[in-house]
Design goal:
Length: 732
């Protein structure tokens, strides 16, 4: 005997060969197999008399085989198996299959069969080509119903999965319900056995939708309970209350070289209000590329530092950390702040002359080894690299601990054990997580791991998004996050002109790029990267493309190469060359963070654009259009699939990141936002996750459940599932 928990290989129903294939898919237990959901369905539920001739429609017919013939077409190494069936309507119909000679053994004259497929008319005969089939006396599994289609792999067909899943389905009655019965009833959800039954073998389209809704609701309920509990945990902590100094902020804003947008004003106000509270802030600044998140973050930092506290800013890569360091040094050039950069390879302190002398005076270190970093030649254009100094790590750490570093910027290096602040009041995290990848580090956890000397408080947390979160989804996050929306672009922006370039137009595009460069601009060339591809092939592909451009296409231009395997110092060197206009073109793989601000770069060319998600392409596009010149984004594609082109067209048509995120959500599902990609939810149930009504219901029920039973003592299966869920995904 076996149960739903049994290993598939111990059930006696799976041969070792199939056992191995299933194992590769991560399907070990009976339960795993039951939760291997269809990726789509074929609707073969319309059973019709042949004589009614539903031409070019997908139908099911049932009839007796009156003729069967197997032909071998030797010359072309093909076999053709044909049958003619006749049903009660006395109309014959021909069905044919290529290269399935074994069908002749089952489909013999006299046998009654059921066939599903698209009916066509060829000369005088009605045809089904390659139809799904089964014996008419068998229960409808592969024909005559809504038929599940599974993700198949070598040696594993949907047909086989259907039979096996059907065999194991009775075990579903052993599963413990997760959704409380009362809630399930209220929202017309199925119980587990029925939900599983209907998701695999739906009676009709309504029952399929209901099954999907059941699983989507369950997922959303878990997400909401988790986020409410996080919020509650978060709110048990204290933070430093920072008084909103209106005059200070006004003065600062008035001195900016531009006027804040209304959205920036409103967001800054929301953040400054949060900072006044002794409850820790947990706020997301949700804005498109170029919407001006940095200055909003800077306003929060300014208020915090002026009140005498420290601020930490964490970026996902060294390149970005460095860039923030430069931006903030510039923004605060008239404030007497000590700003430091700490990453694994750089430890630098901004040392505008007066500031370093302040530093020295205040420091107890006689023999501190600040030294000018001679790697950086004074660049053209007023950049301030020459003012950077490297500093001994130990000294930097002690300055952080003493509180003389006001703003510490860095990568995850900031949460290393030995980094300790004196009075950290605000943590800003630029959450440029890899687009579309499910893992998101727990940001709250990161903020908690920042060590504050006083340790009575935790920092207020401000997160900056890299990809705008669609409005429809923002609600789902509102359980534990407050959201400020930057839905307005600074006025001075010229929209970027985006064009899809088919292979035939490549030369023309290169010529255009060259013209731009000759008129003084610079360009990015972005290469796609297959995620699984080993490091070496990344270097190889990038190097080859680089060579092709440098030697064949633009032999007289200066071209640099940036890929993920370069050492930090090398990356920095290339970046600086590009920034200082020593390079005309920067070739970069997509693993390389190109979140850099080069106003003179006005053209970005993306190879194999169809391989990227829309939001990611939009993100790349945001690298240009940062200066006064008209900018261009050229999407190279070799694909002529209508679907890919349709998708890319979205980018050509709009520059609105929120609209693009919304489209992306519809095309790729919400996994990229929720990080539930590995949850095994079928795509279709995933779509339900964006259903606002469902989100709101789940949110309300999560609240009800936690109010009545905060420790989930009465909801043990829910609690257990939540623990599993927690292991499976990282969601803040
Ligand atoms: P992102 O939201 O992508 O982080 P940034 O903060 O880097 O955007 O801002 C992009 C550019 O726009 C910066 O050069 C910044 O100085 C500029 N900027 C920000 N706010 C405004 C504004 N209100 N008006 C004009 N320019 C602005
Ligand atoms: Mg930014």
């Amino acid at each position: 005997m076996f149960t739903v928990q049994s290993q598939l290989k111990d059930t006696g129903k799976i041969t070792p060969r199939y056992g191995k294939i299933l194992e590769k898919l991560g399907l070990l237990t009976v339960r795993d197999l039951l939760f291997y959901f269809p990726s789509r369905y074929d609707d073969f539920s319309r059973i019709v008399p042949i004589a009614e001739k539903y031409l070019d429609q997908v139908i099911t017919v049932e009839g007796q085989i009156v003729k069967a013939k197997l032909t071998r077409i030797f010359r072309r190494k093909l076999t053709l198996f044909e049958i003619i069936i006749q049903d009660k309507s006395h109309q014959p119909l021909k069905a044919l299959w290529f290269n399935q000679p074994y069908l002749a053994e089952s489909l013999k004259e006299g046998v009654v069969v059921r066939l599903s497929g698209k009916m066509t008319l060829n000369k005088k005969f009605l045809f089904l080509s390659n139809p799904a089939w089964e014996m008419a006396q068998r229960e409808s599994t592969n024909t005559g119903r809504i038929v599940p289609i599974y993700r198949e792999t070598k040696g594993l067909t949907s047909k086989w999965l259907r039979w096996k899943i059907k065999e194991f389905l009775p075990c579903a009655s052993q599963l413990t319900e997760i959704i409380p019965a009362k809630v399930a009833k209220k929202f017309h959800l199925y119980d587990f056995p029925e939900a599983l039954n209907q998701i695999h073998f739906p009676k009709n389209s309504e029952s399929l939708v209901r099954a999907q809704k059941t699983f989507a609701f369950q997922e959303m309920l878990l997400i909401q309970i988790k986020s409410l509990r996080l919020k509650k945990d978060w709110e048990t902590h204290n933070s430093l209350s920072i008084k909103f100094d209106v005059d200070l902020i006004k003065k600062f804003v008035n001195h900016l070289p531009f006027k804040l947008t209304d959205a920036q004003r409103k967001s800054s106000f929301e953040i400054l209000k949060d900072l006044e509270s002794p409850r820790p802030m947990n706020r997301l600044l949700n804005g498109d590329v170029g919407s001006g998140k940095t200055i909003v973050a800077a306003i929060a930092a300014l208020q915090t530092i002026q009140a005498g506290h420290q601020v930490a800013l964490m970026a996902p890569t060294e390149v970005l950390a460095r860039q923030h360091f430069e931006s903030f040094s510039e923004i605060f050039k008239n404030n007497n702040f000590n700003i430091a950069l700490l990453t694994n390879s750089y430890r630098k302190i901004n040392n505008f002359e007066f500031r370093i002398s302040n530093f020295e005076k205040n420091s107890n270190f006689q023999n501190s080894n600040f030294k000018i970093d001679s790697k950086f030649n004074p660049p053209a254009g007023g950049q301030n690299y020459s003012k950077l100094k490297t500093v001994n790590r130990k000294i930097l750490l002690s300055k952080i601990k003493l509180g003389s570093v006001n703003l510490l910027i860095g990568t995850h290096a900031l949460i290393q054990k030995d980094v300790c602040f004196q009075n950290l009041a605000l943590a800003i995290i630029d959450e440029q997580h890899r687009f579309g990848v499910a893992q998101r580090a727990s940001l709250q956890q990161s903020a908690l791991e920042l060590k504050d000397g006083s340790s009575q408080t935790i920092p207020h947390l401000l997160t900056l998004t890299a990809t705008p979160i669609p409005r429809t989804l923002a609600i789902a996050f509102s359980g534990n996050l407050d959201i400020s929306l930057l839905d307005e672009m600074p006025k001075n922006r010229q929209p970027i002109i985006t064009q899809i370039i088919p292979p035939a137009k490549r030369e023309e595009a290169y010529a255009f790029l060259k013209k731009q460069i000759l008129s003084g601009r610079q360009a990015f060339v972005i290469l796609p990267l297959v995620e699984e591809s080993p490091a070496l092939s990344e270097i190889k592909a990038a190097t080859e493309e680089y060579k092709k451009l440098a030697e064949k296409i633009f032999p007289d231009l200066k071209i640099g190469l940036l890929h993920g395997r370069l050492k930090s110092a090398e990356k920095e060197k290339v970046m600086n060359q590009f920034k200082n206009r020593d390079l005309d073109i920067l070739v970069a793989t997509s693993v390389v963070e190109v979140g850099i601000d080069i106003p003179n770069a006005t053209i970005i060319l993306i190879e194999d654009a169809e391989r990227f998600g829309l939001s990611q392409l939009h993100q790349f596009r945001g690298r240009v259009g940062r200066g006064e010149h008209q900018s261009y984004c050229l999407l190279f594609t070799n694909s002529d699939s209508a679907k890919s082109l349709q998708r890319l067209k979205v980018l050509a048509e709009t520059n609105d990141g929120f609209a693009i995120a919304e489209k992306d959500l519809r095309l790729r599902g919400p996994g990229q936002f929720f990080g539930t990609l590995q949850s095994g939810l079928p795509d279709i149930a995933m779509e339900n996750l964006t259903n606002i009504k469902l989100i709101k219901f789940a949110q309300a029920e999560a609240k009800n459940i936690l109010t009545a039973d905060p420790e989930l003592k009465e909801h043990l299966s829910l609690k257990k599932e939540l623990e599993k869920f927690q292991e499976k995904i990282h969601w803040e």
